[in-house]
# Entry
Amino acid sequence: MKVCIMGLGNIGLPVVQHVSKIYRQTQGYDISQEAVNVVKKLGINASTELSCADIYVIAVNTWHRNGYPDMSAIEDCVKRVSILNPGALICFESTLVKGAAREFAKKYNLANIAVCPHRWWKQEEDKYGVVQLRVLGALNPESQTKALDFYNTLNIPIHTVNSIELAELSKLVENTYYYLRIAYAEELKMLCDENHLDFDELRKAVNTKWNVDMAEARDGIGGECLPKDIQLLINAYSNNMPLLQGAISTDSNYRANLSHRKLCSTSETQHIEEGSKTHNT
# Structure
């Protein structure tokens, strides 16, 4: 059984490392020679040329560009696989919008499709690495059976859902839920600042309740996934989502508030230093 991991970036790299420990015939694929070289240095076969395999795991980037979802990198992978081996099992671990997997299957005449979004988190890879409970949805029963066999072999626990669209949606919902939690913390941080209250002390207090887990308010909601996925959820399902739109506005206001505070702090420091120089003179 040959397995090919398509995309060797932040997600694909740990995936190809794990898969190669179990499947001897594992190959990494990426259009970037630099990414391929990184994998080769680990002793794993990799190339910028895609070869025929029995299972393809797609772990390339998705984007939100010019106000719309951009699945072009994923579709390029699907198209290449359809030419080499249309009967292969394709497992999407990349983020997908509503109906993307089914649309690709229909467009490229593919029968074995599964969606199993990654949950890998770099900050705690030992706990939230490749091997952790994942959601899986498939195009049909045959695809589900093949995908479950594959992930069971990888020792990855699976929670199955009854449609491939639910698996797609689950990834967007997970990240959007976390976005909302952070945005709420940011809103409260601004409220505390305006009223001369200690937000960190408030957070510690409310988190003593068994069903509360308030997030931290740091430097704004960044990273590759959260800002992108909340936009994908809004665009793919309904533009009428005032709660989500409000969270995006809150983060924007919070960032502006941070910048203003930093600017004021810098100006105050410079003023003190200039006054000190004048006094010393």
Remarks:
- The CA atoms of residues 3 and 26 lie 5 Å apart.
- The mean pLDDT is 92.
- Strands lie at 3-6, 26-29, 45-47, 55-58, 63-65, 68-70, 89-92, 113-115, 134-138, 158-160.
- Residues 242-280 form the longest helix (39 residues).
